[in-house]
# Entry
Amino acid sequence: MSPFSSIAQQNKGWLGLIQNTAMEAIHCIRFNRTESKDREMVQRRLREHVANPDRLPLLIFPEGTCVNNEYCVMFKKGAFDLGCKVCPIAIKYNKIFAETFWHSRRMSFTTYLLKLMTSWAVVADVWYMEPQEMQPDEDSIQFAERVRSMICKQAGIKPVPWDGMLKYYRPSPKMTEKRRAQIASNLVKLLPPKDGNKND
# Structure
């Protein structure tokens, strides 16, 4: 094990202060999701980082957001488009000891940190897998999906076909009402006929 650089969302307050001081010393990469230009900057800095042999290995959580330890959302392709080896790491937390899922829309990081620090323990299984490289017949999306499948199989979690940013968006009322109507229709079909005649 060695120290890692990492990539993370830029935060404000005391967490932002730590990011701007301690994390800067190990060449961590920070970005702001609300800035469209940050995507280009992050991709450029990622390429510069992996091309420099003097830099620490780069630790990336390719889901792009916190996940609930049961499902694995689609990976961002940027981490798999750098022309370098990827060392998949599967991490699965034990919910018996602590609930480690952080929903940033419902809980501040300070509250989340206090919750973790007052838990019985934070226990996780961690698997380090063989380094992977993009195959000649793969693009970055297929490479990301292959690595995700390896991680899911090792940790026993379910891959799902949606992006991690889904939790930040509320479905439209029209979509919600349509789904409710479908559920109501299915429930009505399960009810027995009023007069006992199945043909009615």
Q: What stands out?
A: The chain has a mean pLDDT of 83. The helical segments are 13-21, 38-51, 109-117, 140-155, 173-190.
